[in-house]
Write a structure and sequence with these properties.
By secondary structure, the protein is of the alpha+beta class. The protein is built from 2 helices and 6 strands; from the N terminus they run ββαββββα. It starts with a strand and ends with a helix.
Amino acid sequence: MRLRANQNRLKVEHSIIDGLRPVLERMLQRDEIRSIIPGVIRQVRDARGPVKIRITVPVQNGWKAIALSAGARQELFISTTLTQAELEQTIDTALAG
């Protein structure tokens, strides 16, 4: 079963790492972000402390990012018209709460 949230803009087809969902929902308050699709979760050793999100590469309709928290990393596919700098600012604002 696929779960949809925030007017079908947060497409949850996998589980989401601890603490990440509220950050994603704050990011979706910007109209320029069309959707966020969380991907596969993998365990890593260096993902401790609060949630961190890092933009990695551009994709056809936006950006790919990596979220780190609770000993895991998760890919995020962000469909947006924002530039990398604008998206980084949006992420920083959403992380600040």
